[in-house]
Amino acid sequence: MPRLGYAVTADPGLSLCADGVFLAADWYGPACRVTLPAGARRLTLHSRTARPADLDPASADTRMLGVPLLRVQLDGCDTPLTNPRFGAGWLDAEDGLRWTTGAAAMDVQGVRRVELRFGDWLRYVAATAGLTPALAQG
After folding, report:
1. Structural domain boundaries enclosing 81
2. How many domains does the chain have?
3. 134 located within any domain
4. Contact 49/124 with Cβ under 8 angstroms?
5. Fewest Cβ atoms closer than 10 Å to its Cβ: which of 64, 116, 126, 130?
6. Within a domain: 137
């Protein structure tokens, strides 16, 4: 793929935004913790996406997947992966995890601290240097 202007990476390019403002997360292993600004209403997880079948010939999974969330705590309390706070951009919970689709929103009204624990990242296709984002989506 490098000859085509793309590379395979295990980096999901994950970022967190509260109401459109990027947040600095404290990472520890496969988990992160973030303090939300006062009055935050929506937390959005942005990441690269991949179809497992595109990079693994043995996979029949053609879903567009972002990152796998294993656990979420809101203000120190475990929140079920089926909680109605999960909004657009989330696939249904399955086998103890919930996948994003690359941009997944969560209602965080009244919450100050969020802790997220992730499962194993996929392999993602990323544009190499020299390609503009518009060309890379192409």
Report:
1. 13-122
2. 1
3. no
4. yes
5. 130
6. no
